[in-house]
Amino acid sequence: MAGTDLGPGPIPGPFKESSGGGRRWRFIILGAVVALAVAYMAYAAFPGNTRYFLTVSEFLEQPNYQTGQPVRVSGKLVDGSFQRQGDTTTAQFQLVDKTAGSAGGYLHATYTGVVPDLFFNPHSEIILEGRYGADHRFQTDNILVKCPSKYQALEEAQNQG
User: Fold this and answer.
1) Do residues 125 and 89 share a domain?
2) Span 11-24, pLDDT tens digits
3) Rounded distance, CA 77 to CA 126, Å?
4) Range 71-97 average pLDDT
5) Are residues 126 and 64 in the same domain?
6) Structural domains counted in the chain
7) E strands of the chain, at which residues?
8) Given this model, what pLDDT does residue 117 score?
């Protein structure tokens, strides 16, 4: 058996020791995949929050928004306009621009569901999500209420007392 040395030495064939370069590329690719996944989840979680809303007067002045496309409209509840249809959860009401008061135009809206408690607060800003129907009423799918400032409520209470 002279000439055959089976002692320690490099292993012949495709089994070579790898340097750390391959491992580093795997971590870079894995990091990129994780970063892309997190970015996509953040993008998918907030699509509705990036949608712009219109004031009542902006909506009423632009007929291109009244074509049945989904839109958000912001305003305040007109005093005395909220009415329920019998024993149902369907309600009809009117919104007006928060700053225009009775001088601005009125948006007639319909909503089926339970309205939030702050909906009736005179300082609340109401945002309706929905579509303008052929019956010239805003068909509301969702109601968002921006809470009034606690200082407005305190100021009003002090003025009454």
Assistant:
1) yes
2) 555 555 555 678 88
3) 7
4) 90
5) yes
6) 2
7) 53-55, 71-77, 83-84, 90-96, 107-112, 125-132, 138-146
8) 80
